[in-house]
From TrEMBL, chain A:
GO BP annotation list: cellular respiration; small molecule metabolic process
Source species, domain of life: Bacteria
Protein name as annotated: 2-oxoglutarate ferredoxin oxidoreductase subunit beta
Organism: Arenicella chitinivorans
Keyword Oxidoreductase set for record: yes
Keyword Oxidoreductase attributed: yes
From TrEMBL, chain B:
GO terms assigned for molecular function: oxidoreductase activity, acting on the aldehyde or oxo group of donors
Protein name: Ferredoxin oxidoreductase
Keywords: Oxidoreductase
A Pfam family it matches: POR_N
Every Pyruvate flavodoxin/ferredoxin oxidoreductase pyrimidine binding domain range: 228-395
Organism superkingdom: Bacteria
Length: 350, 619
């Protein structure tokens, strides 16, 4: 149990534009190990959704199986959640999303959940550009089954028992870029400053948004020799595009554009403000993004921040040409052709 | 090449014989063959065509067996055929052998017939089909296609198909491509004239117009399922291609495009997603239903195998889902294009743990339509997956059935879904509380109410308020409630259909799905030889009490099914807790649809046996 929640809230707790305090966005008490990176991500999600002024019940929290996938229990109590089966959160989210396009879909998955058993569904949900925020809580190991290496464990990284991982890691960010994801970011659970605006930008993006968050497993993968520990990550992290998320409502008042800052408008009018690592880095250039990622990797640096963004793209709903009214709200009159139409069909079958 | 002896003559028959076509897969024979069957249908004569095709795309032999039955028997008759139309040199030896003594072998005599294919007890009718087409049409594809139309024209003369019936079909088929009408009619006429010249006397197998098809249609089960899903209000179809279920999704698409495209916006009031595999397809279906949109998938055995884990989740988490399993032969890839009823146990107990799934067994395209539409009501009412078990025979063949009907006063049963107002005014919502004592809890859909009704759906154990728990009592309470729900289920399921022929209740026959027509014929034949039997056709699982009562009431009970291991019998024995010896299996599993002959002969053999083992072993 990593954080204790007093029910008392100071009367002056800040409220968002909906008049809600952060408390309205909280979830149940976490049963994850104290210090687990996943809990920090839950806290960042709470902060992000609160800051975006989204009503909590307009969110659907989707997940697979794993410690990470349990975490939707620990944020947004007023939202429906679906803890599905191992690796298959993308398909359940696809169905739910197609049924009701009006909700905000937050999918939480682990690296085992996504990069192994769920690799197929991960690839295909990207291909379909489903409008969702897909968070991988990446600890390089299987937490819930007690510490086995996952497919994102770096080659040469040591397990708790001292075993060296002999295999190449799957880099989900590189893969997502390759597969055509329209929003790709990486962050660190210990860097809330970076994570919250990234989450907000992802949630405002109309299309598939991946955030791969290095989220140390304190119990099984937080020792010297692990490349997904707090210490290692802090030492090797390098912020690429540092973002500030600018919601539509603030647009008019905000004009503190800094020297090397670039603004990218999102589909819905919001924008992402980028402070770039170097002037050469353009996060709207997919090829550049892939190249930069590899350069960092070869230097054993972990590139974080907004790595790629395609501000305008057709998401799955546009491609399927489904109406603005969610499919789950269409009534029988609209859906059932009725007996007269059936008589016509009968005639054609003679 | 005339045989040494004169072959026996067939007794003249009207509207009662079997014609089989032997073609090469991919040669475009399907439309000619279906034109043949449809013309007979339009003449008002009961007809049942069946495709027998290989699991490749081109080149291998394919057959089309058409049963004509004045008496209205639409199952497979079994045995040899009266007329074989052989347009495939590859299968000729086999085809010659499938003709009954005195029967007819119609072939393309552009090339000489191998003398090894000559039987002296059948008649040969040769027509130079290839030569005629090559002389008339220049384009090679046309030559291939029209060869098939030409033999249909020849048959019009030989067995008395009304030429006007054929013409009407050509006109309807090519209404949108009128250019194709004249060459098709020309090909039919060429065949007709050629046959008349070469064989002036028509065969003793003759068709005569009747009016037995009034109020009937000719339809494939899969298309009927697709249409049923449109009528049933499905908005999301997620599927992965597999024979023989693919045309369910295609049927849904066809009718959805016809009826569900918004006239003003051009938007689709439906979504069809070709998933990356069956795991994903059922996952999407579960996600959509969870979110309150009616959603379904169609697959076959290998797909059901892959969907097991998700089906268990949907059962335990109580999410509606509709799955249409068009069965084919197993195990493994089996014979992908042959029929079977062998997914019964894997469907009934789909997934690990104590899981039970609701099953439906349609027997006709009309039932495919109706039960698919109903499946959505049942799934939402019971908040559980509903698996409809059809098969290749029903799904991919055209069958005569009553016209489809829809009651416009029907309103979808969305089950126990709480609205925002109900949540607002109600007591504390407990997702898994048995409020009504029927084992069915209330559910809410995401986004309904700002404060109330949200819960966490999961496959792990939880209490009545959906809170995670590993307390044994809570788990057990939940499992017991699911049993209560299971006991409630038959109330919402179609009852078995009883046909009584025997007041002494000596023989009872239980069957389901596509064995229906063949069983009916077998039992009517048995009745004429003094063995009248009653039959009960099962439409759903969990079983209604009527089934147990039927078994108890009869001295001997046969169970007809199309698999090796008597899966349906196992289900009866297991669920009704009866002595396995009280049921006698009639099994057929070579991949062809079961025939009346197999059922008749198996039952008769048992009845002739000195000791009625079944009757003695009851208890
Ligand atoms: C089909 C299936 N196989 C295996 C498991 C066991 N299992 C549960 S969680 C898990 C791995 C979770 O690892 P990850 O996704 O990285 O999440 P973490 O616990 O590290 O957050 C596995 C293998 C399962 N639940 N289902
Ligand atoms: S085992 Fe690891 S991943 Fe799981 S809760 Fe504990 S610290 Fe987190």
């Amino acid at each position: 149990m990593s954080f204790y929640k007093p029910s008392f809230r100071h009367p002056d707790s800040p409220t968002n534009q909906l008049g809600l305090t952060r408390k309205a966005y909280e979830g149940g008490i976490s049963t994850l190990c104290a210090g687990c990176g996943h809990d920090s991500i839950s806290a960042a999600i709470i902060q992000a959704v609160w800051g975006l002024n989204i009503e909590p019940h307009r969110v659907a929290k989707m997940s697979g199986i794993g410690c990470s996938s349990k975490s939707p229990n620990y944020f947004l109590n007023k939202a429906h959640g679906f803890n599905s089966v191992h690796g298959r959160m993308p398909s359940v989210t696809t169905g739910a999303n197609v049924a009701n396009r009006d909700l905000l879909y937050i999918g939480v998955s682990g690296d085992g959940d996504t990069a192994s058993i769920g690799m197929g569904q991960f690839a295909h949900v990207i291909r379909r550009n489903l409008n969702m925020t897909y968070i991988v809580e990446n600890n390089g190991c299987y937490g819930l089954t007690k510490g086995q290496d996952s497919a994102t464990a770096d080659e040469g990284s040591q397990s708790k028992k001292g075993k060296i991982n002999p295999f190449e890691a799957i880099d989900l960010v590189a893969l997502a870029l390759e597969l055509g994801a329209t929003f790709v970011a990486r962050s660190f659970s210990g860097d809330k400053q970076q994570l919250v605006p990234l989450l907000q930008a992802a949630m405002s993006h109309k299309g598939f948004a991946l955030i791969d968050v290095v989220s140390p497993c304190v119990t099984f993968n937080n020792h010297p020799g692990s490349t997904k520990s707090y210490d290692y990550t802090r030492e090797h992290v390098e912020a690429g595009a540092v973002v500030d998320f600018v919601p539509m409502a603030q647009e008019i008042t905000l004009d503190q554009v800094k020297g090397s800052t670039q603004k990218v408008a999102l589909h819905n009018g919001d924008s992402v403000e980028l402070s770039k690592l170097s002037d050469n880095y353009d996060p709207t250039d997919r090829v550049k993004a892939i190249q930069t990622l590899h350069e960092h990797k070869s230097k054993e640096r972990l590139l974080t921040g907004l790595i790629y963004l395609e501000p305008e793209s057709d998401n799955f709903h546009d491609i399927l040409n489904i109406p603005d009214t969610p499919l789950n709200q269409l009534d029988e009159k609209t859906l059932c052709p009725g007996s007269d139409a059936l008589s016509q069909i009968n005639l054609g079958l003679k | 090449m005339s045989p040494l002896n004169t072959p026996p003559a067939l007794a003249p028959v009207i509207n009662d014989f079997v014609v089989k076509f032997a073609n090469v897969n991919g040669s475009g024979s399907a439309s000619a063959n279906s034109m043949f069957a449809k013309a007979i249908f339009r003449m008002g004569i009961p007809v049942s065509p069946r495709n027998i095709f290989p699991s490749n795309i081109q080149g291998a032999p394919t057959w089309y067996e058409v049963r004509v039955s004045e008496a209205g028997f639409l199952g497979r008759r079994g045995g040899q055929v009266e007329l074989m139309v052989s347009v495939n040199p590859q299968s000729m030896a086999e085809d010659v052998n499938s003709v009954c003594p005195g029967g007819y072998f119609f072939y393309d005599n552009t090339y000489p017939l191998d003398f090894k294919l000559i039987r002296d007890d059948i008649h040969y009718i040769g027509l130079p089909l290839t030569q005629i087409t090559n002389n008339t049409f220049t384009n090679p594809r046309q030559q291939q296609l029209f060869k098939n139309i030409i033999y249909v024209g020849s048959l019009a003369h030989l067995i008395g198909i009304e030429f006007s019936a054929l013409e009407s079909i050509v006109n309807d088929t090519f209404a949108r491509k009128p250019k194709l009408i004249p060459p098709n009619i020309q090909a039919l006429q060429l065949g007709f004239d050629e046959a008349k010249t070469a064989h002036p006397d028509p065969l003793p197998l003759q068709l005569q117009r009747r009016n037995k098809n009034d109020g009937k249609v000719l339809l494939e089960g899969n298309a009927a399922c697709g249409l049923g899903a449109v009528y049933g209000g499905a908005t999301v179809c997620a599927w992965y291609p597999i024979t023989p279920s693919t045309s369910v999704a295609e049927g849904f698409e066809k009718y959805a495009k016809k009826f569900r495209v918004d006239a003003k916006t051009g938007n689709n009031n439906f979504a069809i997603i070709q998933a990356e595999d069956e795991l994903s397809a059922i996952g999407m279906v579960i996600g959509a239903n969870w979110n309150g949109a009616r959603s379904f998938t169609a697959t076959s055995g290998p797909g059901v195998s892959l969907m097991q884990e998700f089906l268990g989740l949907a059962y335990f988490a109580e999410v509606p889902a509709v799955l249409i399993d068009v069965q084919r032969t197993g195990p493994s890839t089996g014979m992908p294009t042959r029929t079977q009823q062998s997914d019964i146990l894997i469907s009934a107990y789909a997934s690990h743990g104590d899981t039970k799934q609701v099953l439906l067994f349609p027997a006709t395209p009309k039932e495919c339509f109706e039960l698919t539409a109903q499946a959505f009501d049942i799934a939402e009412r019971l908040q559980t997956p509903v698996i409809m078990l059809t098969d290749l025979d029903l799904g991919m063949n055209e069958h005569i059935c009553d016209e489809l009907a829809w009651d416009d006063t029907h309103s979808y049963d969305r089950g126990k879904v709480l609205s925002a107002d109900e949540l607002e005014s109600g007591a504390r919502f407990g997702r898994y509380l048995d409020v009504d004592g029927d084992g069915i809890p209330y559910r809410t859909i995401a986004g309904t109410h700002p404060e109330k009704g949200a819960f966490f759906t999961r496959g792990t154990s939880r209490d009545e308020y959906a809170a995670y728990t590993e307390k044994g009592e809570a788990y057990q309470r939940n499992m017991e409630r699911l049993s209560v729900k299971w006991a409630t289920a038959p109330k919402y399921l179609p009852k078995p259909v009883l046909t009584e022929r025997d007041t002494t209740q000596a023989i009872g026959v239980i069957h389901f799905g596509t064995s229906h027509e063949a069983t009916r014929e077998a039992l009517e034949t048995l009745a004429t030889s003094g063995h009248a039997a009653n039959d009960l056709r099962v439409l759903a699982f969990p079983f209604h009490d009527e089934i147990n009562a039927f078994i108890e009431a009869h001295e001997q009970v046969f169970v007809v099914e199309q698999n090796r291991d008597a899966q349906f019998k196992s289900l009866l024995v297991n669920e009704l807790e009866i002595n396995p010896k009280s049921l006698i299996s009639v099994l057929h599993y070579n991949g062809d649809p079961i025939s009346a002959r197999v059922i008749h002969d198996t039952i008769e053999l048992h009845l002739a046996a000195p000791v009625s083992s079944a009757a003695q072993n009851r208890g």
